Amino acid sequence: MNVTDMQKWSGILLVVLFQFYAGPLRAQVVISEVMFNPEGSEHTDEFVEIVNLDSLRTVDLNGWGIGDNEDRDLIADAGYGLRLGPLQTGLVMDPDYSETAGTYEPIPDRALRLTISGSTFGSGGLSNSREETVRLIEPLGAIVDSIRYCIDIPAGHSWERIDLYGGSEQENWAQSRDARGTPGYSNSVSEDGNGCLQLNLQAAWSINEGERIDVRFELKTVNTGRHAMAEFPILFYDDSNRDSLTADDEMIGRLDIHELGPGDSLTVVLSWSTWEYGNHRFGLLPVITGDNQENSRVWWEEIVLPYPERALVINEIMADPMNGCPEWVELFNPNGFTVDLTGWTVSDSDTLKRVIVAQEPFPVFTDHYIVLCDADDAASVYAEGQVQVLGVAGFPGLNNSADGVCIADAAAHTVDRVDYHASWGGGNGVSLERIRWQNASQDSSNWHACTDLRGMTPGAINSISVMPASQSCLSVHPVPFSPDGDGREDVCLITVHLPVPCATITLSVFDVHGRLIRDLRNGVPSGNETVVIWDGLDCHGCLSRTGLYILYMEALVPEKNRVFHDKTVVVLARSR
Questions:
Q1: What is the pLDDT of residue 119?
Q2: Which terminal Cβ of the chain has fewer Cβ within 10 Å, N or C?
């Protein structure tokens, strides 16, 4: 072979070698995380995360696609370009995802934000009801990576790859430890790279005097990575405005974590007191520098602090309405704090069949009423608009003869329950009303048929509502008194003070065993202040024995549907 032939063959050989070697140079891009069942809207919050595992080459994603079992979409520019750098993460978001809404913010700057050409991932979005295969596809149609996700994980958690360099089989995938997944960050189930921090938060609480909640948090920190993590603090936040951002005025504590070696764990405790019941979103921000700084992201944890009993009371029940009218239950907030109905449930006596009252924040303010009924009836209930009505999908049907009504907060804590009977009152279009919210819900004597001409008082004070006066209505003088005819302290002067200009009063004397001794007034009109005399005689005209007696007063204000009541002790003695 001459020189010319050798040059020709060597040129061909170089071309062949180059073409042969060019194949393995193709960058290795894999699917690293799939969010198919987000906590928020499925139209905006699904995502697929990909990673370029090549440490040298940048991949141009122009023409690449992502698909499910039935359809695929092109990966599109979200305003940051389509070039995925070496070892860079790409985050393919729904086209309607809003950075300002902040569902997954903050996403680290090093992650390349991407979107898709279609309106949803695949055919109608990623399914929550059946397992689907997610495919990453090159411009020429070759499938670069393909994974099949498992649907048996809680809403809000993603499907994460454990070993980025491992296979696509389901054994190499797991449910994310983080609610909302880890978009743009290292996977929470991965152990590659530097030290990897995992947090596990447990909370216990007690309601103390004054109805303050004392919360005790136990935070377990674990280094699941392969390298040590130096000492660092964790800042603790109560995201009171639920904007998914940390603010100085929301910080409730700081926990200092000692050095964590590979596989090491440490449990620390934080105590906190609050007056805010219901749903809380706590943020934990590890402040980490150096090689492990990718762990410096906010970990969010949803915790529900239970409301105290009778935070809301069942105040009126319409179990037997007129034909064509709906059944309903009225709730009343008698407390000095607002109650949020998010996640609350209502049921009849079968508490295993609870239905959600409100999925979104729904406040019930102090001294306000709310009427619950079936969602299909909400638009037509009391069209005059004077009543605040909340339609509940699947509102339980209430039996006319006997049944129960139970309301529970988002922590499944029973706040109030009434097991009523037809003998208590109501029926045939007349509601059953609570007399006093302070008295026991299960006490039949605390319930009465509505006396209003309409047969009901939804969204307003009950027709027979007994209320304590703002101050004591009764005062007696002298104490004791001695009706022995000596001209000194022979009678007891009873002064009735009312917080209204006029009322109809009933004033009675009982002994300590609850037996009626005498009616001093029985449905007599009275002004703001009235003085009544008791001479110590009983209803038969006989002088009562020495001892203690109970004076009980009720004042009815018919035009305002109010009843005030008060009681005090009278002491009858004999002069020596």
A1: 86
A2: C
CA 9 from chain center: how many Å? Answer: 76
Secondary element (H or E) of residue 509: strand 503-511
548 forms beta bridges with 571
Cα separation of the two ends of the chain: 150
Cα atoms found within 13 Å of the Cα of residue 169, Cβ hemisphere only: 3
- Six-digit token pair at 545? 């024995």
The answer to whether 125 and 44 are in contact (CB under 8 A) is no
Give the helix, strand, coil percentages of the chain, each rounded to 5.
Answer: 10, 40, 50
Cα four-point dihedral sign 427, 431, 435, 440: positive
What is the model's pTM? 0.52
In the three-class reduction of DSSP (H, G, I as helix; E, B as strand; rest coil), residue 528 is classed as coil
CB 304 within 8 A of CB 280: yes
CA distances from residue 425 to 121, 330, 399, 433, 531 in whole angstroms, order as listed: 57, 16, 14, 9, 36
CB 532, CB 478: distance < 8 Å: no
Q: Which of 309, 317, 307 is nearest to 372 (CA)?
A: 317
Q: Are strands 492-497 and 474-477 parallel, antiparallel or unpaired?
A: antiparallel
| Two tokens, residue 291 | 């090689």
Token pair listed for 520 = 């001093």
Q: How far is CA 87 from the centre of its chain?
A: 40
The residue with greater pLDDT, 564 or 292, is 564
Question: How high does pLDDT run on average in the chain?
Answer: 84
Query: What is the spatial distance between Cα 337 and Cα 265, in angstroms, rounded to a whole number?
Result: 40
